Amino acid sequence: MPRRSEALDRATPEAIAVAALRLIDEEGPHALSFRALAERLEVSHATVQRRCTDLAGLLDLCTEHLAGQLPEVPAGTGWAEATELRFTALYRLLVAHPGLLVLRGGRPWLGRQLLARLVEPALADSVAAGMTAAEAMTAYRRMYLLTLGSAAFVDHRDPAGATAASRAALAALDPERFPVLAGGLADVLPALTDHEVYHGALRQLIEANRPATA
């Protein structure tokens, strides 16, 4: 009978994902490495690499772990309500881990958990409500890009820092060339970190894409 590896038992995909996300959240995306993870898990660098092969594989473990936290919307939920539930849940996960978004960049997120918990049920609901598959995919893509962009371009874990940095940049502008930006800081800045900007935009997209039979 083959001997079990205590290191591999300790460095499960789930444990690696949790440790990696904690490392990114606490120290920033630049701190993520196999060696740093190995130290946290008290295993060898090679053990971590055996589990995920490369950085892309490691990031896939992290995103799959997060996707597993997306809700399963109960059957019978209305199309608009189900759509808003799914995408707001994705938004909350993404804004909680901005460093992961930085590391993933433009890489597609096609793990089984995301496909099973978000993409497939969202498309199936849209088709059942009267959309063609192409229409359903277009509507999904619009909402996904809104969610991804809204989460990626501001560090919502540090709204005060994001506001301060934007304030400094806008205050340095020439008010004659940028009268709205330089002269309306009190009105412009709050929208940068206001979650309702995303939620309002999502509701508008949902209404604009609502199937006639929904």
TrEMBL record:
Residues 74-190 form the Tetracycline repressor TetR C-terminal domain. This is TetR/AcrR family transcriptional regulator. It comes from Streptomyces flavotricini. InterPro entries: Homeodomain-like_sf, HTH_TetR, Repressor_TetR_C, Tet_transcr_reg_TetR-rel_C_sf. Residues 18-48 form the HTH tetR-type domain. The keyword Transcription regulation applies. Keywords: DNA-binding, Transcription, Transcription regulation.
